[in-house]
Amino acid sequence: MFKKLDILILKAFIGPFIATFFITLFVLVLQFFWLYIDDIVGKGLDLFTIGQLISYVAATVVPLALPLAILLSSIMTFGNLGETFELVAIKSAGISLLRFMRPLLVVSILICGVAFLFNNYIIPVSNLRLNRLKYDIINKKPAFDLREGAFYTTLPGYAIKVGKKEKDDSTLTDIIIFEKDRTLQDNIIIAKKGIMKVSADKRFLEFKLLDGWRYAERGSRVNLNSEYIRLGFKEFKKVFDMSSLQLGKTEDSLFKDNYQMLSVRQLNVAIDSLSRINDVFRKKTNTEISPYVTFVKQIDTGWVQPARFTKVDSLNQIIPDSAFTQANERVVSQLSIVKSTLDINKTDFENRSKNLRFHKMAWHEKFTLSIACLVLFLIGAPLGSIIRKGGIGTPLVFAVVFFVIFFLLNNFGKKFVKEDVMLPITGMWMATYVLLPIGFFLIIKALNDSQLFNKEFYHRLFRRFRPKKAEPQ
């Protein structure tokens, strides 16, 4: 009987989980494109590049999609069972809530393991390739788009203007080409008509110009004497190199040392190395300052105050007036050097400390986003059995509320860790610390058949405490 019950619950869970997972993934991918739409549109990206970008983005948002999918699908599953009174039948057979939660609990734990493996091995590679591709796309110049009556200046060294483009987008009239140069005068080509053609590999743009003039001036900024040349032509061929408009391919090595591109093992090595910054900077500061603070070398534990030690209140008592100005200037100079050295070391120390916090934050995040699948299941399962509403409407409302709480707490924790307000172990686990007790509270309420989200219960409660109307005399 129990095996049939387990299969029933698993079948009821798998469908909503797969559907909500892909819907959530789609929404999160759209959010990325919404943020970077200005950097992508107009770049002339091919379908293969767009497909790569979508796949990398989808892989990086899987850790967020999994917890939301588990939360929504668990609420829907137990809500459907409650709405069709299957939940009541199961309880009446003497089976507790915890017992029929067990198969989905095991599935949630397995998903936590899969999520951790994904975070540890797939996400670093996806982040590396996504950041490289995003960098190339953002730095890529817009695709070639020659418009009527406007100068096109994206090609390095040239400004092109056409009066009119025919419907075939190849035949042009009233063409002006400025050749930008470092000499005294830009060269100019003017043609009444021309034919434009782009090579098959889109690396070269060829203009076949008809009936025009080419104006050029030869000279330099050193020698002001220049030579002016005017050349008329019936046909002139001009080729432009469009390689600068192509999508470049940056090496992965540019981003591979970023904390987001490291696995747990690599993060452990990096954190161990960065954790030694206190000893490193202490030795570095002593080495750099000791030449300017020479009296420190004279201090040791064996120094004994002389018997005839005279206390002085000012340096004027031991430095003669003739040497005071020179001594004062030397002290100020030495102190300026010491202060500058300390400021530089302070900035370097803060940057390294920040880098250490980011590495610890990435280490904890690989575990927190995995455990979130289990935490949100412990909220969704009892919540669904309490509200007893199936479908997508009510479960979606509750799922969005709790996921927003999880998302905000997670981001607040990351922000506090980045600003050094909280330790990584506190800030990165903030969402878990808050939501886990809520999950246990909802489980207790569900075990006791709580009316926590039943509006009829609150309506009856309100009527009970509402004052009765006085009877007419």
Automatic annotation (TrEMBL):
Bilayer topology annotation: Multi-pass membrane protein
Pfam assignment, any one: LptF_LptG
Transmembrane region(s): 12-37, 49-71, 104-123, 367-386, 392-409, 421-444
Keyword tRNA-binding found: no
Localization, UniProt: Cell membrane
Any Gene Ontology biological process: lipopolysaccharide transport
Keyword entries, A-Z: Cell membrane, Membrane, Transmembrane, Transmembrane helix
Record's GO cellular component terms: ATP-binding cassette (ABC) transporter complex
Protein name: YjgP/YjgQ family permease
